[in-house]
Each structure stands twice: as structure tokens, then as C-alpha cells.
Amino acid sequence: MITDHRLHSVSAKLKLYSYWRSSCAHRVRIALTLKGLDYEYIPVNLLKGDQSDSDFKKINPMGTVPALVDGDVVINDSFAIIMYLDDKYPEPPLLPSDYHKRAVNYQATSIVMSSIQPHQNMALFRYLEDKINAEEKTAWITNAITKGFTALEKLLVSCAGKYATGDEVYLADLFLAPQIHAAFNRFHINMEPFPTLARFYESYNELPAFQNAVPEKQPDTPSTI
Amino acid sequence: MNHLLMVWVLVLKVYRFDLQDFKKINPMGTVPALVDGDVVINDSFAIIMYLDEKYPEPPLLPRDLHKRAVNYQAMSIVLSGIQPHQNLAVIRYIEEKINVEEKTAWVNNAITKGFTALEKLLVNCAGKHATGDEIYLADLFLAPQIHGAINRFQINMEPYPTLAKCYESYNELPAFQNALPEKQPDAPSSTI
């Protein structure tokens, strides 16, 4: 359970269905802590196939994590969850007030969620390894990450501050941090061609909200990690 | 397919770019790209949100927090759950590395999974359109996806009655009609 001194009083505690290693769940964990929201962490072991359990499928018919339960409301997608949290708990805001900077945040978010992450999820790994081989799988993922990081580097190089779009943490940072963390730790991507992204990553490592959200620090992180 | 999203929302100013010039506009070399004075935006979702924020009428998101969340979820299922698995780079890769049948199976599987999820998501909150009786963000993503699924990938819509009903409702709206691929200035004159 993650707590923060800025706890909001909510009538029913939020529940987050999460998997330690899911970069999508990682995004939401950052958001919840940034907003000072207490939540119950409910692990869903994707390797064991918990996502196919009938009880979980009642929560999320898609069988994916993360899923957020807020009283009667269930939301099943990291982007939708984060926008819902930002709508319902506006402080601190996850989007800047300037239209163009907001657009840059949406662009960075979209690059991660549609151009990179779909190509590195478990279903695709297994498919590529099964139908072709492990080397092709690695090449495919490396290519997706490289293309995406190249685009992000170009997008952000001229508007970055301490973080992706200035000196405050915004939506883009919530998507970048888990993606860079995974690229670095799981897929061993060389960050040299992406100095702007590498710099952000170091900045995130100084923030408790980001540190506490990393895969290695979750209630369901295997003890062998 | 992405042309649909763009043209629906815009009052068009048409810019023509040379191919070399285009990469100055969008280093990623993808469409759509929107130019608004000095501002360039390169992603359909980002463009739509920018337009909705700058030109708030009619609003592309409902006021109710839960319905907004449903719109974001539907958008995300299309944007990250379906479309990445049917784009040209992916289908060429699978065809090349495995074969045509696998490519078809892969795309069908992505669309089927995504449509199943969308059907479950929307069945209880759809009205005339995806999340009520007004057009919202979800509809802008559903219309091109369903259009592509039916016309390019020959997906059978019978298991998805809610999506099929939404699609029929779009066919009655000039904004959606005018955005179809077949009606664009650069549509080939021969049948696609």
C-alpha cells in the first residue's frame, strides 16, 4: 500500500489492479502518488494468467491491467484512468495551461501508448517468439523503441525543462518514465542517442512519487528481483 | 484512415507540401499533421484534443466524469489496442517474416479483440452514438476503425451490434460522410 501525507479523504478507498512489471500500471502508480491518493494494491499475476480468472474478468472483460475501481466506477486503461484522476482530483494538474504545451504532452503520450508499448507487450512477445524466433522478437521490440525514442527526442528537445515539457511534471512524464525504465532495464536499450530522454530519467529518479512506483518496489515484485 | 479524423473536425485550410518539405513539418514522416500558424502537431489524438481545447464548440467530451472516462477508454482501445497492429509496417513485417495467412490472422485477431472490448465497454452507455446521443471523442475513433474493418479487412460485424449501430448512425451525418477516404482530394480515381 502506498501512502502519502497529502491523503485525500475518499468515501471508498480506490483499488488498483496492477502487475509489478506492467509499464501501463506503472504510469497509474505515479499518478496516484502525485495526486496524494491512497489506494489498495491488488496484484494480478500476468505470468500465471490471473487476468483470465472469471472474477477479474468481471472487473475488466479485456483481462488487462491496470484497472481502477472507484466505488461503482471501473476504468480499464492507463490513459483513461489518469485522465479520470486528473478530472476528479485536479491538484496538481497533469496538463499545463498552454494549448501548445498540452498538445506536446498528448503527442508524447500517444507515441508511447500507440507506437511503442503495443509492440512490447507479453502477447506480442509470445507470438513473435512462437511464430518466428527469439532474435526476431528482440529485433522487433528494439526497432519499435528506437523509432519511438527518436520521435520523442525530436518532439521534446526544444520544449523540455527539468522534465519533458517544462519544470513541472505533466502527463508526458507519467508515460515516459515507465517506458524509459523498461527500455533501460528490460530491453537494454542504449540511451546515448537520446540525451534529452536520459536526462529526464535522471530527474524522475529524484522524485519519491516516481521512485515508489518502479516495478522493483511493488507488493507483488518477486523476491528474486 | 487518419484523414477521416482530421477532416471531421476542421474547417479546412489546405496546404500542399513537397515530400522533402514534409519532413520539416513532421520528422516522423507520418500523417496526419496539423499546421496552425507557428504550431505543428503530429498525432491524430493530439490534434483532436488541441482542436477541442482551442475551439470548444461543439465539445468533444461530455461533462460527466465517468462518460469522459468511457470516451478515453474507447479512444485508447482503438489507438493503442487495434490500430498499431494493422498499420502498414506491421502487416508487411508479418507477411515478409511469416506469410500472408498469418498476417491476415494477426490483423483479424487484433480487430476482434478490440471490437469485443469496445462492445462490452459501450453496450450499456451507447445512445444514438457511442456514449450517448451526441457525437464525442469515441465516435471520431470508432468511425474510421469500423470503416476500415468492414471495407479493408472484411470483418463480420454480427458479434458487435452496438458498434454496427453506431456505424450506421455515422453514415447519416454529413461531417462523417465527407471525411471518408473515398471522398478526399487525393483519393485515386480508380476503385480502391
TrEMBL record, chain A:
It comes from the Eukaryota. Residues 12-93 form the GST N-terminal domain. The keyword ATP-binding does not apply. This is glutathione transferase. One of its GO terms (biological process) is toxin catabolic process. Its EC number is 2.5.1.18. GO terms for molecular function: glutathione transferase activity. Pfam families: GST_C_3, GST_N_2. It catalyses: RX + glutathione = an S-substituted glutathione + a halide anion + H(+). It is an enzyme of class 2 (transferase). Belongs to the GST superfamily. Zeta family. Residues 98-223 form the GST C-terminal domain. Keywords: Detoxification, Transferase. GO terms for cellular component: cytoplasm. CDD domains: GST_C_Zeta, GST_N_Zeta. It comes from Arabidopsis thaliana.
UniProtKB/TrEMBL annotation, chain B:
Residues 1-59 form the GST N-terminal domain. GO terms for molecular function: catalytic activity. InterPro entries: Glutathione-S-Trfase_C-like, Glutathione-S-Trfase_C_sf, Glutathione_S-Trfase, Glutathione_S-Trfase_N, GST_C, GST_Zeta, GST_Zeta_C, Thioredoxin-like_sf. Residues 64-189 form the GST C-terminal domain. Keywords: Signal. One of its GO terms (biological process) is aromatic amino acid metabolic process. GO terms for cellular component: cytoplasm. Residues 1-16 form the signal peptide. Belongs to the GST superfamily. Zeta family. This is Glutathione S-transferase zeta 1. It comes from Arabidopsis thaliana (Mouse-ear cress). The lineage of its organism: Eukaryota, Viridiplantae, Streptophyta, Embryophyta, Tracheophyta. The gene is GSTZ1.
